[in-house]
TrEMBL record:
Pfam families for this protein: MaoC_dehydratas
Similarity-based family: Belongs to the enoyl-CoA hydratase/isomerase family.
Highest rank taxon of the organism: Bacteria
Entry-linked SUPFAM superfamilies: Thioesterase/thiol ester dehydrase-isomerase
Name of the molecule in the record: Beta-hydroxyacyl-ACP dehydratase
InterPro entries, alphabetized: HotDog_dom_sf, MaoC-like_dom
Transmembrane regions: none
Naturally occurring in which organism (per UniProt): Streptomyces lomondensis
Residue ranges of every copy of the MaoC-like domain listed in the record: 10-100
Length: 127
């Protein structure tokens, strides 16, 4: 693990099932995450992914790269363009800083309409 290392991209198909189950798993019962008609009434073209699902996918991306011993110490993300069903989000990451067994990774996730998520993840990878 070295500053400047790039994580390989991860493509995540954004399905209706992923959006709904992620919302349910995180106990987010807002209608915009499961009811297309109510989402449209509120100005969205369809349902969209909640931040907790995105947070989990970012964590999965980092731990998937660094392995089963990886420990997430901090995840700080900001949402942008929504993830709608039928799109694909591509996560990419760059190691910004390394201090011993701990790294800070800059994460970007883009979909067909722009940047869905940006942020940093601090991960410890014990020897």
């Amino acid at each position: 693990m070295n500053a400047g290392d790039r994580l390989p991209p991860l493509e995540i198909p954004i399905t209706r099932t992923l959006i709904v189950t992620g919302a349910i798993a995180s106990r987010d019962y807002q209608d915009v995450h499961h009811d297309p008609e109510l989402a449209r009434q509120k100005g969205s073209p369809d349902i969209f992914m909640n931040i907790l699902t995105t947070n989990g996918l970012v964590g999965r991306y980092v731990t998937g790269h660094f392995g089963p011993r990886a420990e997430l110490r901090r995840v700080a993300i900001r949402l942008g363009a929504p993830n709608h069903p039928g799109d694909t989000m591509v996560l990419t990451g760059t190691v910004e800083e390394v201090d011993g067994d701990t790294a800070t990774v800059r994460i970007v996730g883009v979909n067909g309409i722009g940047r869905h998520v940006t942020g940093t993840v601090t991960v410890r990878v014990p020897a």
